[in-house]
Specification:
GO molecular function: zinc ion binding
Radius of gyration: 11 Å
CATH superfamily: Zinc/RING finger domain, C3HC4 (zinc finger)
Number of domains: 1
Keywords: Metal-binding, Zinc, Zinc-finger
CATH architecture: 2-Layer Sandwich
Protein name: RING-type domain-containing protein
Oligomer: single chain
Pfam families: zf-RING_UBOX
Order of helices and strands: EEH
CATH topology: Herpes Virus-1
Largest sheet: 2 strands, antiparallel
Length: 51
């Protein structure tokens, strides 16, 4: 099995506490929280596809 399917696109590590967004992309919960805070948006978009 290829690790790229288990890797967060934000931190590039194996998922830790993974979260799936409505668009289907998956990220670590901590990475998504940091992304949201950095973007300063309450209704943030996917870091990968911007949906």
């Amino acid at each position: 099995f290829d690790d790229k399917f288990l890797t967060c696109d934000i931190c590039q590590n194996i998922y830790e506490d993974p979260r799936v967004l409505p668009c289907g992309h998956t990220f670590c919960a901590r990475c998504l929280e940091k992304w949201r805070k950095r973007k300063n948006e309450s209704d943030f978009s996917c870091p990968k596809c911007r949906r």
